């Protein structure tokens, strides 16, 4: 199951994208959210549900999705 949602923030004058991937065979979920780093650059944070869930950051949405899919593919193999 996957959900991708883009919302517009009038105050900031930009769109924000959030992605959720949930694996059907487990309760694991992978989230992609836009974040701003210490250098004032927008990036995509990828994290999974649970403790120590940080999977990394990416400069663009497609790269963030690749990180998410790599994690999900690895977790499928370990079930």
Describe the protein's architecture and organization.
With 79 residues, the chain is of the alpha+beta class. 22% of the residues lie in helices and 47% in strands. The model has no long low-confidence stretch (mean pLDDT 87).
Question: Quick gist of this model?
Answer:
This protein is of the alpha+beta class.
What are the SSEs and their pairings?
Elements: E1 2-9, E2 14-22, E3 29-36, E4 42-48, E5 54-58, H1 61-77
Antiparallel strand pairs: 1-2, 2-3, 3-4, 4-5
CA distance, first residue to last residue: 18 Å
Order of helices and strands: EEEEEH
Number of helices: 1
Largest sheet: 5 strands, antiparallel
Write down the overall mean pLDDT: 87
**Which structural class do you get from the secondary structure elements?**
alpha+beta
pLDDT < 50 runs, ≥5 residues: none
Q: Given the C-alpha coordinates, what overall shape results?
A: globular
Write out key terms for the chains shown:
79 residues, alpha+beta, 5-stranded antiparallel beta sheet, 1 helix, 5 strands, 22% helix
């Amino acid at each position: 199951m996957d959900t991708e949602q883009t919302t517009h923030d009038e105050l900031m004058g930009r769109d924000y994208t959030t992605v959720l991937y949930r694996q059907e065979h487990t309760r694991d979920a992978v989230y992609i959210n836009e974040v701003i780093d210490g250098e004032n650059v927008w990036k995509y944070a990828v994290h999974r549900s649970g403790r120590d869930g940080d999977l990394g950051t990416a400069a663009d949405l497609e790269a963030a999705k690749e990180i998410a899919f790599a994690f999900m593919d690895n977790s499928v193999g370990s079930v």
